[in-house]
Amino acid sequence: MTTANKLTLLRMALIPVFLGVLYAGIPGLWALAIFAAASLTDLLDGYIARHYNQITNFGKFMDPLADKVLVMSAMCWFVECGRMPGWVLAIVLLREFAVSGMRLVAVEQGRVIAAGWSGKVKTAATMVCLCLMLLTGAPDVMPYGSLPALIDTLDLVSNVVIVATTLYSGVEYFIKNRDVFQNAD
Question: How far lies 9's CA from each of 2, 54, 181, in Å?
């Protein structure tokens, strides 16, 4: 098993730890630290895989899956807490299912659709926004009741950034690869 794949597996292993910390009510900085560490493994495993030629089929499948599960876990928690509208999560889920479906159609045509730059920006922006939301919701850093207007504004901006980057990258994938559906049976 490559170092890059081990980092991806570490990210997957950190997800239940992250959720456990959130739901156990352990001080918020712990949840933030775990989420940030898991997010950084995404950057690191990609760099290692490309730089040291450790790109594997396992990594091509598991790396984006680990990213999606990590992000969706945090977003579900924010929806449950009332800090993110459910429709934001629904847009992100719809985009992920649509792009995955398009990739499956492309594979049947013998074509692989690589991750685009806008998809990477979407993932990074979403992870940063979720880190900021975790930081402002961390009672040991900033009690939620102390600056509600600032926190509400940051939540709104984070939600807008997440939706905007999600929609942009989804539309871009479909425009750049529209021929996939023109050639479908």
Answer: 11, 15, 33
As a whole number of angstroms, the distance between CA 89 and CA 91 comes to 5
List all residues 6 or more positions away from 164 whose beta carbon is below 8 Å from its beta carbon.
none
For residues 27 and 116, what is the distance between their CA atoms, to the nearest angstrom?
A: 36
> Measuring CA to CA, how many Å separate 126 from each of 25, 145, 172, 178?
23, 24, 17, 25
Global pTM value? 0.90
Handedness of CA 100, 105, 107, 113 (dihedral sign): negative
Nearest to 15 by CA among 64, 61, 71, 96: 71
> Residue 78 belongs to what H/E stretch?
helix 57-81
Per-residue pLDDT of 152-176, as tens digits, reads 899 999 999 999 999 999 999 999 9
Does residue 62 contact residue 8 with C-beta atoms inside 8 Å? yes
Q: What is the dihedral of CA 111, 47, 32, 149, to 10 degrees?
A: -70
